[in-house]
Specification:
Elements (H helix, E strand, L loop, with lengths): L5 H9 L8 E5 L2 E12 L6 E8 L5 E11 L5 H4 L3 E4 L3 E7 L7 E4 L8 E3 L10 E2 L7 E6 L2 H22 L1
């Protein structure tokens, strides 16, 4: 067991990249490369109470959750028309060498229109990085029509039915 300063741990957790970062821990005068695997939080105060670290060898491959960042939103015709980017996966489960964990995966939404979907097969991953999910071409995000447009269309249909009922009387 080791002690980690809570203030520093909270600071690292707030970066958003803590679970993807190599953490060097000094044990008995030796530096050990580790990867955070789990953080336990106090049920009432939400302060971290325990962290599990995975010891890494120099040539090990690890599975990590890497955040997704969408770029070129201003170049998307669907978003310009008022469409909404519906993010299905905020993180991607990736397998990579422990010394080359990406900070984030950028996905270009330029040229995407309403009704388009972004799948893992369309994403260019860094060299040596593969998806942990290999049995299907899963969806990362979709561009959908704005809900205001959907609800106004729905209201029109409802009004037409109400008018038809009034005409019938």
């Amino acid at each position: 067991m080791i002690h980690v300063e809570q203030k520093e741990l909270v600071r690292q957790l707030m970066t958003g990249h803590f679970m993807n970062s190599i953490v060097n821990i000094e044990i008995g005068g030796k530096s050990v490369r580790t990867l955070p695997k789990d953080v336990a939080f106090h049920p009432v105060t939400d302060r971290p109470t325990h962290v599990d670290f995975l010891r890494l060898s120099a040539d090990s491959k690890v599975e990590v959750a890497v955040p997704v960042v969408f770029i070129n939103e201003e170049k998307s015709p669907g978003l310009k028309k008022g469409g909404v980017l519906n993010v299905v996966r905020h993180e991607l489960e990736l397998v990579c060498a422990s010394d080359s964990i990406p900070d984030e995966i950028q996905i270009d939404v330029g040229g995407k229109d309403v009704g388009d979907a972004i799948h893992i097969s369309e994403v260019t991953l860094p060299k040596g990085v593969t998806s942990a999910i290999t049995d299907r071409d899963f969806t990362i995000a979709t561009l959908v029509a704005p809900s205001a447009l959907k609800s106004s269309e729905g209201d029109t249909t409802t009004a037409d039915v109400a008018d038809a009922d009034a005409d019938a009387e």
